[in-house]
Amino acid sequence: MEVFQLLIPIFTEYGYLAVFVMLLICGFGVPIPEDVTLVTGGVIAGLGHANVHTMFAVGMAGVMIGDGLMFVLGRVYGQRLQMLPGFRSILTPERFARAQDAFHKYGKWVMFVARFLPGLRTPVFFSAGMSRRVSFGTWFMMDGLAALISVPIWVYLGYYGAQNWDWMFSVLHKFQHGIFALLGILAVWMLARWWKRRRQQATDRR
Prior knowledge:
This protein is mostly helical. The protein has 10 helices and no strands. The protein has helices spanning 2-27, 34-46, 52-76, 79-82, 85-90, 93-106, 109-114, 118-131, 136-160, 165-205. The chain is globular, with a radius of gyration of 18 Å.
């Protein structure tokens, strides 16, 4: 709520540019909730300061370019970038180790799941680029598919809830809980597949 109230006057004043820049910042792992940023963009559209469909397009561009920059930086600069002070605070060894572990277990699908996990999104995309085992096209497909689910939900929720913030935040929290529940089910399914494949490989080697 505090972040929302802070963003409202900034987005009202500077419109699409402010939303786009804030989403780029989110892509670099700065602890600003991306869902609240998108909802706030929808709210200013609902209040008449922007067009909601244009806001959706700006939201898609912001999240995809922000995520894409982390993938490309991982591909081009890799470990050299990890040593820089600013990036060390975002790409901590713990986060990077978790991202690497998830990436090795679940493959390309972890990039889909990472879109919904703010603390893991940046290191996962950076790790995917650095590994050189994921093509830009594969990253774009998985992240783009996830963004096509998350971005319109948050932008249009803000648009329709612009006149009733209590209802909007109630629905926002329900959506967040629902997404985490679905991701939990997906993670269990992916883990079961990984374990089954590992056992099969062990059997084949005997």
